[in-house]
Design brief:
Layout lengths: L6 E3 L4 H5 L4 E6 L3 H7 L8 E6 L2 H23 L4 H22 L9 H12 L4 H12 L7 H13 L7 H12 L3 H9 L4
Length: 195
């Protein structure tokens, strides 16, 4: 019969789930039977599941939200206000859509719970390790304790192998994390404004 598999994504911060707050996960599976089998396991728990057929896009969204959460942490650490971080969130979502489109074509996933929902929770929560890592990069000037997002930047660029265009945030992070560029200078150039 073959093995049925799926990928779980979405805004599922462990600190909130363990304290009894709800979270909405997205189970990406090509075969909906996987979702129908797994969903009843979470009845009576704080975890609610949604179904998404494009498991590959859900998997990529889970990686991308970590990367772009680091960027939001850097912006906060550099003292950017909500206006600047709002702009960075919007640009980040645009870039994530471009990356997924280049890799697997399921860009619409970015606009749902597995994409935008997970990204906002990870990028803005003080409980997020990727967010905290970004703040530390801004304060220390370099990445001393890499998070999942930091580790994924170089690998994602290798996987992209030149596919996808207009990804200035991703390349800015690569310069900071993998080439030891100064976060303040890189982010000033990213915005195109000297603060």
């Amino acid at each position: 019969k073959g093995t049925l598999s799926g990928v779980l994504g979405g805004p599922l911060l462990a600190e909130e789930l363990t304290s009894g707050q709800f979270g909405v996960g997205v189970l990406g599976a090509k075969n909906k039977k996987v979702f129908e089998t797994v969903q009843p396991l979470f009845e009576g728990t704080p975890l609610v599941l949604e179904y998404q057929k494009d498991s590959t896009a859900v998997a990529y969204a889970s990686v991308l939200k970590n990367i772009y959460a680091v960027a939001l942490g850097i912006a906060e650490g550099l003292g950017w206000g909500w206006n600047g971080r709002g702009w960075l969130c919007a640009r980040g979502l645009q870039e994530m859509s471009r990356v997924i489109k280049a890799l697997c074509g399921g860009a619409e996933v970015i606009h749902g719970t597995a994409g935008a929902g997970d990204f906002f929770a990870t990028a803005l929560s003080p409980d997020s390790f990727n967010h905290q890592t970004g703040r530390q990069i801004a304060l220390m000037g370099k990445c001393e304790a890499p998070s999942e997002g930091c580790r994924a930047v170089g690998n994602l660029l290798k996987v992209l192998n030149g596919r996808g265009t207009d990804l200035p945030i991703l390349y800015a992070l690569d310069h900071i994390i993998n080439q030891d560029a100064d976060p303040k200078t890189v982010f000033e150039n990213l915005l195109g404004v000297r603060a």
